[in-house]
Amino acid sequence: MMTLNSFCAQLLREIRKTRPLVHHLTNIVVANDNANTMLSLGALPVMAYAREEVEEMVSQAGALVVNLGTLTKELVESALLAGRRANALGVPVILDPVGAGATYFRKESALLFLREVKVAVLRGNVAEVRSLLGLSSRMRGVESGDNSWDHLSVAREAAQQFALVVAVTGAIDYVSDGSRAIAVHNGHALLTRVTGTGCMATSLCGAFAALKRDFLFSTAGALGFLGVCAEKSALHAHGPGSFRVALFDAMYNLQEEEFEKSLRLEVLEG
């Protein structure tokens, strides 16, 4: 019987073999890092935003990643077009509601997308996800201002309310489909000192989801991959700058066997 770790390693092997195209509507702060994350992993990135082409582009993709970091009315319109087309084609959609709760526009745009598009995976920090649930959240810009909440309960409640897989990332990442849940214990504190590592996590969720397997397991594998690479990178880093460079190298060089052995995933009961 295949273990969860071996399942995730197999996904990594298949990504590198098939090189899925991941269509991003992402934010301008991290677009380059998102693209390099895909290339280092072994997937193919494309960043296409124009209303005139998003439907055609997503028809070629294995997954669609929508990131609301640098939000505009035009981005919302393009995202809805791409998301609806992705749904019609069976292409999994991953949503990163960056800064939801920081402003009314961000929160309502994310909720509109969730109403209009069938999302496979929602990836955010605890404050963002709480905001989408209508709960209090303390955002400082696009960063969570409080880590004292029960991340697992937030992930489960959001998964049930929105009928999708939810990943609430933090010191420990929690992934839930509303009934099952997995804790991802891999990672390093330096991830919080580099802009866009949460957005990288969302892109990885897209690449792993492109194989159209169990989205709970594939999302845990994606977050575990980033966490394992962060742990390896931190061994050689002198600070955020060298850590960022080492992170891409670790993604590129991590072998499937080492990934399988290094993953620290915990299947949670109840």
Give a written overview of the molecule.
The protein has 270 residues and is an alpha/beta fold. The protein has one domain: Ribokinase (UDP-N-acetylmuramoyl-L-alanine:D-glutamate ligase). 50% of the residues lie in helices and 16% in strands. The chain has 11 helices and 11 strands. It has a 9-stranded mixed β-sheet with strand order 2-1-3-4-5-8-9-10-11, sandwiched between helices. Helix 2 (31-41) crosses helix 8, helix 6 packs parallel to helix 7 and helix 8 packs across helix 9 (215-234). It is globular. The mean pLDDT is 94.
Short note summarizing the structure:
This protein is of the alpha/beta class and 270 residues long.
Blueprint of the fold:
Blueprint: H1 4-18, E1 21-25, H2 31-41, E2 44-47, H3 54-58, E3 63-67, H4 73-89, E4 93-96, H5 104-116, E5 121-124, H6 126-132, E6 139-140, E7 143-144, H7 151-162, E8 165-168, E9 173-176, E10 181-184, H8 197-209, H9 215-234, H10 240-253, H11 256-262, E11 265-268
Parallel strand pairs: 1-2, 1-3, 3-4, 4-5, 5-8
Antiparallel strand pairs: 6-7, 8-9, 9-10, 10-11
Helix pairs in contact: 1-9, 1-11, 2-8, 2-10, 6-7, 8-9, 9-10
Number of strands: 11
N- and C-termini, Cα separation = 23 Å
Number of helices: 11
What multimeric state do the chains show?
single chain
The CATH topology is UDP-N-acetylmuramoyl-L-alanine:D-glutamate ligase
For CATH, the homologous superfamily is named as: Ribokinase
Unreliable stretches (pLDDT < 50, length at least 5) are none
Tertiary shape: globular
